[in-house]
Amino acid sequence: MRRVLYIAYYFPPAGGPGVQRSLKFVRYLPDHGWMPTVISVKPESAAWPAVDPSMLVEIPEAVKVVRTPSRDPYAAYARFKGRAKADTVGVGFADAQAPGAFEHLARFVRANLFLPDARRGWVRFAKKAVRECLENQSYDAVVTSGPPHSTHFVGRWAQREFGIPWLADFRDPWTEVSYYDQLPFLPWSRWLDRRWERGVLSEARSVVTVSEAVAALLREKSSRAVSVIPNGFDPEDLAGIEPRRGEGFRLVHTGTLAESQNPEMLWPAVRTLRDQGLDLRIHCVGRVDASVRESIRQAGLEEAFEFTPYVPHREALRYMAGADCLLMCVPRTRESAGILTGKVFEYLASGRPVLGIGPPDSDPARLIAQSGAGIMVAYTDPDAMRAFLHTKSAAESDHARPDPSYLEPYTRQSQAGTLAGELNRIAE
Predict the structure, then answer these.
(1) CA-to-CA distance for 326 and 344, rounded, in angstroms?
(2) Given this model, what pLDDT does residue 47 score?
(3) Cα–chain center distance at 207
(4) Do both 224 and 284 map to the same domain?
(5) Angle between helices 187-203 and 151-162 (to 10 degrees)
(6) Do residues 303 and 280 make contact, with C-beta atoms less than 8 angstroms apart?
(7) CA distances from 420 to 36, 68, 151, 408 (A)
(8) Are residues 189 and 275 in the same domain?
(9) Would residue 263 be called left, alpha or beta, if left means φ above 0 and alpha means ψ between -120 and 50 degrees?
(10) Whether residue 203 is found in the same domain as residue 259
């Protein structure tokens, strides 16, 4: 059994989609010959947008988790605003309230003083934990999971200082992440951020990411090999799920719905279908940006909507399983074609129809189409949205589930095996 240090800021009891990839790698790597030791942040020191203690039970008993303090500007920001720290930590700047002058100032400070991200204050604590772990045990590799991409600085330091082969896992792009253009960078800070990005890409012994489109982007920046280990789903999470259903034909969206994901052209399609007599209702489970709520209000659809704040992961799966149709909105960014989140695979595994809104020529569009689960339509095509929803609402039989053999390569167990293979390669 080889040993790997796994460095992850987002780890249970943190909640949200960013946690799933690291948690499932750690859970299933021992099945493939690698025993992880996790280094993460203490809950009381963390700036997590959500907490889900229910996922703690998935960490194998044999896995040691080292938790450290951190220094994070969100704590001071929360005290100043008189709010809970979790309420000040957005996901892609999604917030229930429209940003005011102080929030715009806070974004400026974040962009130009806290580089590459506001979690930079955790790096020195994580390095100390790495050093202490190495005093008692040798390790064959180190994995860093970003964002926050400052986490990669820990892996680079460990490789330089101790010669441990380092694998950098990019769950999202760095300087092309969906909310990057919302940060008001000065020229020097943008240049420095890109320089650090290139440095991480060039020094890591292995770089892996979640989709072919993101891999191509990273290859352009570094002229190096980048491997793809997609996100996926865990069949055990879906076993025995009792669907949470409601009245009418329910279009369900789970997770964050940020400003860049606002499907504004969907609302007229919904309005038309409701006017034609379809009891179509939309249920958003998770954080919804103020701009999305305002566009719903302007469309006169408030009565058709239900909003549920963040719920534990298994509860979110119940909402997925009980939907008549699932809604997925790809952020409108330059690199949107490569956004392939774990939610896509859980949507497919739920067996429910999927209406995707985003680039029709993209990684998630191909995945949805090849699985037979649904379609991806352009943000500007309300007619296609309306036609798809009308067809699904009029279907006499339940939607056919995707072929299990198609989904098999996307199980979290399979993905952990692929990561183990990459670790075997760099540890030789």
Answers:
(1) 10
(2) 85
(3) 18
(4) no
(5) 50
(6) no
(7) 11, 26, 20, 17
(8) no
(9) beta
(10) no
Cα 166 from Cα 4, distance rounded (Å): 10
Each residue's pLDDT tens digit, 23-32: 999 999 999 9
Whether the pLDDT of residue 319 is over 70: the answer is yes
Number of domains in the chain: 2
Shared-domain flag, residues 329 and 255: yes
Whether residue 306 is found in the same domain as residue 167 = no
Distance in angstroms (rounded) separating the CA atoms of residues 214 and 212? 6
CA 366 – CA 375 distance, rounded (Å): 9
Residue type for position 406: Y
For the cut 60, the answer to whether the pLDDT of residue 237 exceeds it is yes
Q: What share of the chain is helix, strand, coil (3-state, %, to 5)?
A: 50, 15, 35
As a whole-number percent, the residues of the chain with pLDDT over 90 amount to: 67
Tell me the average pLDDT of the chain: 89
- Tokens standing for residue 178: 């969906």
| Same domain, yes or no: 277 and 340 | yes
What is the mean predicted confidence (pLDDT) over 347-363?
91
Can you give the pLDDT at residue 370?
87
Residue 287 and residue 94 in contact, taking contact as beta carbons nearer than 8 Å: yes
∠ CA 375-378-380 to the nearest 5 degrees? Answer: 140
Question: 211 with 228, same domain?
Answer: yes
pLDDT in tens, 58-111: 999 999 999 999 987 766 655 555 455 444 445 454 455 556 676 778 788 878
Contact yes or no for 262/297 (Cβ under 8 A): no
Query: Among candidates 322, 324, 172, which has minimal Cα distance to 258?
Result: 172
Q: Same structural domain for residues 256 and 130?
A: no
Decide: residue 298, CB within 10 A, 0-12 exposed, 13-18 middle, 19+ buried: exposed
Beta bridge partners of 68: 41
By residue range, what is the domain housing residue 274?
235-406
What is the per-residue pLDDT across 181-199, written as a single tens digit (0 to 9) for each? 778 889 999 999 999 999 9
Euclidean distance between CA atoms 127 and 420, whole angstroms: 23
Half-sphere exposure of 158 (CA within 13 A, CB side): 35
Q: What CATH number is given to the structural domain containing 70?
A: 3.40.50.2000
